[in-house]
Amino acid sequence: MKSDSWRIVRDDLTRPEVVALVELHLRAAYANSPPGSVFALDLTGLRDPTVTVWSAWDGDRVVGLAALKQLDDTHGELKSMRTAPNYLRRGVGRMLLDHVIAEARARGYRRISLETGTGASFAAAHVLYEQAGFTTCDPFGVYSDRVFAAYYTLAM
After folding, report:
1. What predicted TM-score, i.e. pTM, was given to this entire model?
2. CATH number of 6-155
């Protein structure tokens, strides 16, 4: 469960442990999705001015990360949700998701959408999003894959 010592900070993607977590995220995305069906952002994509990244910390250990991409003035996209392996099933994902939702509301977004995989390795993510109130939706933005991708949205 969530520790009172955990904290979330806006991240500039310069700390080696955060870079390593992004790299783990990308490796897992490519290992669990067919070629052409990976839309996870690399460091360059995460550094785009339309993207804000947060990292979660337990003392000096990074425990997770999440990003929010501005699609337009009222619509954001959740990107790059990842929990460090030693912190799985301890509330990190939910803490970060709640943080991103609160930030989207503060920005005046009317909805947040996301794209994720459909394989078994993505099942826990689907549960997390559904428990937070996200519902399935059609592809949005640049997405069109209906075989290996699932889409969710949360109206604010």
Report:
1. 0.94
2. 3.40.630.30
